[in-house]
TrEMBL record:
PANTHER family, per database record: 4-HYDROXYBENZOYL-COA THIOESTERASE FAMILY MEMBER (PTHR31793), NOVEL THIOESTERASE SUPERFAMILY DOMAIN AND SAPOSIN A-TYPE DOMAIN CONTAINING PROTEIN (0610012H03RIK) (PTHR31793:SF27)
Descriptive protein name: Thioesterase family protein
Keywords: Hydrolase
Keyword Hydrolase part of the UniProt annotation: yes
GO molecular function: hydrolase activity
Amino acid sequence: MHISEKQIEIRYAETDQMGVVYHANYIIWLEIGRAQLIHDLGFAYTKLEDEGYLSPVIDVSIQYKAALRYGQIATVRTWIESHSRLRTTYGYEVLHEDGTVAATAKTVHTLVRKDNFRPISLSKVDPAWDAAYIENMRVQE
């Protein structure tokens, strides 16, 4: 299983009135982590879009554990939790610089045709990408 890591320098604009990272920013960081994982595995999401496909989020869950603040460096760890014919679940940890877990999360995605939003299997669109996900997922289905 491959675990990707991406560091995020927390900007002032990402914090709320309490001085902690606003909760919605974590969703942006999850996307950054997913893009890094896909890149690490040798693929590009833009290629899917260019070929007429999208991978929308159909579920997201985040558990907040320890607040992050402006000026800190967060590390987003991302992996493939599970991958099946029509769904991919990514797992995440967002860490403080000392390794303390700030948040854990999961997102569930499907692959659809851009023109009609009908689901399609990644194995039909890009068999090598599908094989890489199967090889690197945490949970064997």
